[in-house]
């Protein structure tokens, strides 16, 4: 079906189904363009909870739809492609976390929202890349902190806060595709640009950047800045988001290889199919959801 017809079909089905389409900043451009709301995973989950629509089509990866399901148990949360997972979230499992907690009685678990609902259920505080520093600083001094799954975000938090933490050894394979040579090359081509990188990158990259920010932080930074050019060290979908929001500025991907294959599994045809069939629905077992919600709320109280 031609793209325009497909978009019209999606818009008609959306109204018929009382649905809303949410898309993560890393989604393909055509999905971003059809979405009602763009944002990072937590923004979108919070928006889903406050939306009046009963059906939420979450264009992102599995843990994001799960987080929305945890925060909005009364709504129908649909992930248009159920195999769109997050390799980093899958690097941390609840059983191993429980075993580590037993080895460190009294420890406090801080978990990045890029984690499964089962892991969140074993967590004291969730965090995002935007509030990780604040959340870790809120843990009383002297407490052992277990941080996961991202060892690079955890390492950056340790560097910024001076808090020693037991780091889970997970990482985002997409952000590891950004290498120091990419930043050096972009600096050479765009000498006046500000280099913004995501804290999921390797420390060899953060040390070369001007600022280290999550996707929401990047948007806020550009809004306040008078600079015209930016090199962006995160998943390439962010370039479309930034360029559309700030048409008078220029954005350059640190490398076009920083592409998350799971994020790119969502396509317009799949969104249309999901609205037609009202599936696949993502649900979380109520007991797990209740405990995961506690960890998310503990984070929201701090930030
Ligand atoms: S970009 Fe990285 S952290 Fe985000 S969904 Fe893809 S693999 Fe997971």
Task: Write a compact overview of the structure shown.
The chain has 303 residues and is an alpha/beta fold. The chain has helices at residues 3-17, 29-34, 41-50, 62-71, 94-103, 117-121, 132-138, 151-161, 180-189, 203-206, 215-224, 237-245, 268-277, 286-302, and strands spanning 19-24, 37-39, 55-59, 76-78, 108-112, 125-127, 145-148, 165-167, 194-197, 211-212, 229-233, 250-253. The chain is globular, with a radius of gyration of 19 Å.
Outline the structure in words:
The chain is globular. It starts with a helix and ends with a helix. With 303 residues, the chain is α/β, with parallel strands linked by helices. The strands form 3 sheets. Strands 2-1-3-4 form a 4-stranded parallel sheet, sandwiched between helices. A 4-stranded parallel sheet has the order 6-5-7-8. The chain has a 4-stranded parallel sheet with strand order 10-9-11-12, with helices on both faces. Helix 1 packs parallel to helix 13, helix 3 packs parallel to helix 4 and helix 7 crosses helix 8. The chain is built from 14 helices and 12 strands. Strand 5, helix 6 and strand 6 form a beta-alpha-beta unit. Bound molecules: iron/sulfur cluster (SF4). The site of iron/sulfur cluster (SF4) has 13 residues, from loops.
